[in-house]
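Incident log, entry 3
Record: GMP/IMP nucleotidase (220 residues)
Problem: checksum mismatch between cached and fresh output.
Input:
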Amino acid sequence: MQAITWRDIDTVLLDMDGTLLDLHYDNHFWLEHLPQRYADTHGVSRAMAEMEMRPLFEKNAGTLNWYCLDFWSTELRLPVRELKLETAHLIAMRPHADAFLAAVRQAGKRVILITNAHRDSLSVKLERVALAPYFERLISSHDYGFPKESQNFWSALRDDIVFDPARSLFIDDTLPILRSARAFGIAHLLAVREPDSRKGPKDTEEFSAVDSYLELLQGL
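Fresh output:
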């Protein structure tokens, strides 16, 4: 990964899940815990639960509904927020993310969290990990009514916080979201090499990727 030219950056935009927090919590919840609780509650097999849930996942991927706990509670007839608390012990910050956040703040950069996570999901995470003090703002895409995959999100963000895309760094673990940011004009983009600590590195395709947050401190 090439060193960041920090003098060219005023604003640091950061995703949460898979970027600052280990994605293992979310992957375990959605792929393991929730299907099992669906099976238990509705009296079906685990295989049947996954078969019934799969079309809903495929239909809503990349939309705001995909990230909305209220939507999934209604669709699955389950108290999803309460179920997320059952595995909250798995919520963990990625290595050295806190040191990176502290250093960026100390360097005088604007630091803003932008997440597709529903506000209820965000609150569950913040109860377990002390992220809030590092940020000027904690923004959920639900505040704007558009996911980060949409250009409408980025327009709403610029109107809200007034930032220069050409002088902004954005880090996210989702490639379609990084491509959306690039289309909007965000000049400095980084993916995350290993969002889920249990799944190993992934191909970040055309994007440079963060292996360790300590790498980013050079020249800050």
